[in-house]
Amino acid sequence: MTKAKKLVSSAVAISLISTSLAACGAGSQTSQGGGASDSGKPVTLRFAWWGSDARHKATLDAINLYKQKNPNVTIEAEYGGFDGYDQKMKTQLAGGTAADILQLDQPWLAELSGGNELLLDLNSQKTIDLKNFDATYVKDYVTYNNKVVGLPMGTNGRTVFFNKTLADKVGIKYDQNWTWDSLLEEAKKLHDKDSKMYLMNGDLGVTNIMLMSMLKQRTNEPMVKDDYTLSFTKAQAAEAYTWIQKAYQNGVFQPLGEAQLFSKKTDQNPKWINQEFVAIEGWSSEFPKFQESLPKGTELVTALPAAFSDAKTGPAAIRPSMVISVNKKTENQEEALKFVNFLLTDPEAAKLLGDVRAVPAVEAAKNAVVEANKLDKNISNAVDLASKKPAVPDNAITQNSQLSDISQDIIQKVAFNKLTPDQAADELIKRYTDKLKELKK
């Protein structure tokens, strides 16, 4: 596993807003851990997260509710956008300056759990009842080296968002069983009719996930096995790169040079806003931002991602929308755990948070959100759809960021015709094999 020092090259600046929320008076105790702090001693906790304005407001409302129940606790809220957030968190954790409580993306956990232990093990913490969470989900997604280093805040499903209004207008049947071939066929017809139109976004992050999906569908395994060997063959990799090359040539994807400008912020892409591509592949929790960026009255729907007709696993990844972890170096461990428990399990908090982090992972919280009519049916439908055809989960090593960087670099070369699919497959195997030898040490 990569050591923490390998995670950090330099700090990437990100604007975080720090807010110290004032006390609001005591409230009644709840069985979910939102009751008053036992000691009454003044405590200050820092909580960092990324998200949209809606997520910020809902989270601040939940923090205020916690303050009412625990007037001795001050929560300093540190929040901003996603761009640069991952490097900032990794840098701060390695440097000992991170917040007490952290919202993290699940793929980061593997690296943050290797070498120096940066996150608190939640396995034996009495304040957190792991029985509130699906055991398999916890094992597959937040357990590393037999330690539970975070808890799922919600459940996300990989989905394709279709601008139904536009799809109907241009004659695309959005709810078909999409295959890799049919994506190429529909996109070519669309682009041939109007050269300004593309089927979907195609930045490196999205295309890399598609590459991984194609290989998993062929092997029913993550790209890298637990023993640090590759699960795929050169022929399988070349097949995937051939599809990617055709996708950029035939109008499936917006040209990479344009799409990459809006990586991780596709909702701001003028092609999407101006309805010049029909679909976006993303995560179910992103539904609100993609809907909000379209003209009023435009209908947005979801569909399953593409699959081979003889795929060995489903096309839709299911994983935590994000996780919440506790900094191992926090000076207020018990108070931090109480706040985490409150945020994940308290019904009143759940009603305030709604679906801003997708479908709540705790059943009681989910029920509270449903009863309060705060769960967007589009988000829940996307998760339900994905759960019917789930992909084999990625293991820790497959999600390593250095491997992802290699893969995206090769995709870029294919997109710009610097490598043939066969050459790309050779390079992927060589560079992955070399890097895995280094990471295994």
TrEMBL record:
The keyword Coiled coil does not apply. It comes from the Bacteria. It comes from Paenibacillus piri. PROSITE patterns: PROKAR_LIPOPROTEIN. InterPro entries: Bact_solute-bd_prot1, SBP. Keywords: Signal. SUPFAM superfamilies: Periplasmic binding protein-like II. This is Carbohydrate ABC transporter substrate-binding protein. Gene3D superfamilies: Periplasmic binding protein-like II. Residues 1-22 form the signal peptide. The keyword Signal applies.
